[in-house]
Sequence to fold (540 residues):
Amino acid sequence: MRYSLGALSGVLAGFAALAVAEAVSALVRPEAGPVVAVGGATIDRTPPSVKDWAIRHFGTDDKLVLQLGILVVLALFACALGVLAVRRRRAGALGVLLFGVIGGAAALTRPDSTSWTDALPSAAGAVCGALLLYILVGRLSTTRPAPSAPSAPDSRPDRDEPVTAEGAAPAATPGESGWDRRGFIVAATAAAAASAGAGAVGRSLNGARGQDAVASRTDLVLPAVASPAAPIPRGARLRVPGISPFVTANADFYRVDTALVVPKVDATGWRLRIHGRGVGRPMTLTFDDLLRRELIERDITLTCVSNEVGGPYVGNARWIGVRLADLLAESGVRPPSEGGPADQLVARSVDGMTIGSPVEDVMDGRDALLAVGMNGRPLPFAHGFPVRMLVPGLYGYVSACKWIKDIELTTFAAYDPYWVRRKWASRAPVKTQSRIDTPKPFARPEAGTVMVAGVAWAQHRGIDKVEVRIDDGPWREADLAAEDTVDTWRQWSFPWQATRGGHTLTVRATDRTGHVQTGRRTRTIPDGADGRHSVVVTVG
Fold:
């Protein structure tokens, strides 16, 4: 019983530590909380193959799974510390303090940490948790005198010896060990209630911290664009049930990043600094400065390097922003082809992420943007409000910095950004890919005409042809929807005369350079997956 209650004491102490840390993080910054800090440190140290596995299996819920996993591990350790404290009270409390040290160290070593105060949430939580565990376990080890048993009258006065018949109950001895049941229940209940209250206050305060950022987005009216996107051509949107919409809604657009807490940046206080090698005129821009510049609107398809063959991490949107090449040119930057000393542009996010892009690609005439709008609205927070960067034709990890705050011109030889330090390639143009959206894998369509349809993409090169193969038959050309631009995906369809039985449907695309999508499957690491998408169906 005592060990079970000790484990419960450990869990309550852990709960209290996290709740107090949550409340204190509201006074420091939400990202300094121990779960977020340890989670971020875990992401940073996770091998790329494991990250890829998590994204493949959990999708955009990978961060939620990580946080739940951290909480489960903490709960198990809390139970163990509670059991240890029953035997060694001080050792259990010191164990809680040790976790505070780990949380504080994780917070201080995060890339976005700028002050020693980031360690305060973990430290305060650990102290409260350790004290609570010490108090609760103390209630379990209280010693009380055992009540003395009433003496029964001797029915045999002629005998002086005590009765020693076999099976007689032994008398209780004074000083028998017990526990303060009432005191433990009162202390545990009070601790749970106080912890819940502290956690609720912390969450409320953390939510309030972002209200200025929310207001700055709510109040934002995007200026009229100087160069609007051309209307989407007639015939670019196929009316085939099950095919991906040509324009991906903001709410449905994929999100893959390392931020456990989505940064909420107040646009009124946002700044962007442009500096580094070859920058003759360094700049610092406010959000209003950016909005006063010439805005352009472009349809651009983005792709995540973690997208498996046939995967969902690709989307098309209409973006509004400022040409990045114009800003760089005003700063005196020249591409390497014109003698510029910098060949890499390193973008830094408010959460410490670093993303490196080739300067040549950013300045070669393509519509590389500092985007402020997405599908006619200000950027959602999850997609980089107030400003994000994007470069058509490059995977997101080398081009699409969200919540951007700093641009430094340097060289690939001098600096390795976040993902390059984790064995991803430093240069990563999007590979030519295609996907079957309908029919779905293991579908059971009826015999007759079955419309096979999907999307294909090769940003900044364009798609020239899509072909479909049934089982081991010949490749047959699909019908391509009208092209919007070379920077967007294209829908395609193929009317298949389906016959009964099991069939494998395979698709491949050819881009405008003549490159045909390869049939050799490769992993996403180091520069994006390759191969052809197939689905298996059974025709009834």
